[in-house]
Specification:
single chain; 7-stranded antiparallel β-sheet; 297 residues; alpha+beta; Phosphoenolpyruvate Carboxykinase, domain 3
Length: 297
């Protein structure tokens, strides 16, 4: 009897909670307004909703109408079950205006890049839907486009966006909140503390680099000044030799010998410093003194 093949694994759940160790969990908690208690962050992978969104994206791209795919689009709901229903079933256009009114026309009200306003609609125990959206000439309501002005194709952070077509936005995550049952929890505190520490370290490093650059520049200037002093003295000595009473041939030979001696010192890497002149001067003065002392003896 033929062995039966194992059945395929079941599809992944459409909405799953993220562990606190997940980088997406940490990124989203860092964006939550200070003082909120995050009870969970759920990832949305609802096949039907994603397929509808990708189909809209393909149609817009084929028409050349897709201006950009916008992330970090937030929509607040007062109940966790509402956010779950939206993620599974999509937005119900029959409910447009039931919560926030129709000040900017019919559509899904959201805010790009800032959770502050959606956080107010989430209430104590609601949720914020994190969504992607397809920006195109017909994406937003007329009143919304008028408010955006020249930023319709690239809305800045904090912009209120009213999406006319529910299939052109798709939830990717849900941030759930709960009442404060203990000490205040600031989910973004760790990220802000780490950012402040990194900024402090960067400032400290910049100050250290600046000090080292100043010290290096001073040392380079001092070395250059010593080299200039040294070779200025050498040239003056060569000039005195050339203008001395010796014959021209002898002067040239003396200069050649001195240049050769200086070249050998340079090639040998001997240090050049101003004090060398003082040593030479003292040494020259000491030789006649020694000769006089020998003569007296």
């Amino acid at each position: 009897m033929a062995k039966m093949a194992a059945p395929p694994p079941p599809p992944p759940p459409p909405i799953t909670p993220l562990p606190p160790s997940d980088p997406k969990y940490n990124r989203l908690t860092a964006l939550v307004p200070q003082g909120r208690v995050v009870t969970s962050i759920r990832q949305c992978r609802v096949g039907v909703r994603q397929a509808e969104y990708e189909k809209e994206k393909g149609v817009l791209s084929a028409k050349g109408a897709l201006q950009r795919e916008l992330g970090n689009v937030y929509h607040g709901t007062p109940d966790v079950w509402r956010s779950t229903s939206i993620a599974l079933n999509g937005f119900d256009d029959k409910l447009f205006g039931s919560n926030v009114g129709l000040a900017l026309g019919r559509g899904v009200y959201s805010v790009h890049g800032d959770m502050s306003t959606p956080n107010q609609y989430a209430g104590t125990s609601g949720s914020i839907l994190v969504m992607n959206g397809l920006v195109n000439p017909d994406a937003f309501s007329p009143a919304c486009k008028q408010g955006l002005g020249g930023n319709v194709s690239d809305p800045p952070a904090g912009s209120v966006l009213v999406w006319q077509h529910t299939k052109q936005i798709v939830p990717t995550h849900i941030v759930d909140f709960g009442p404060d049952t203990g000490p205040a929890v600031d989910p973004g505190a760790a990220a802000r503390e780490a950012a402040a520490k990194a900024e402090k370290e960067a400032h400290k490093l910049a100050e250290q680099i600046k000090k080292e650059e100043v010290a290096f520049a001073k040392a380079a200037y001092d070395d250059g000044r010593k080299a200039v002093d040294y070779y200025t003295a050498r040239l003056r000595e060569f000039e005195r030799t050339y203008h001395s009473g010796s014959s021209a041939d002898a002067a040239r030979e003396e200069l050649r010998n001195r240049f050769e001696r200086e070249k050998r010192q340079f090639d040998a890497g001997l240090p050049v410093y101003s004090a060398k002149e003082e040593v030479r001067r003292v040494a020259r003065g000491a030789i006649p003194t020694m000769e006089r002392d020998e003569a007296r003896a």
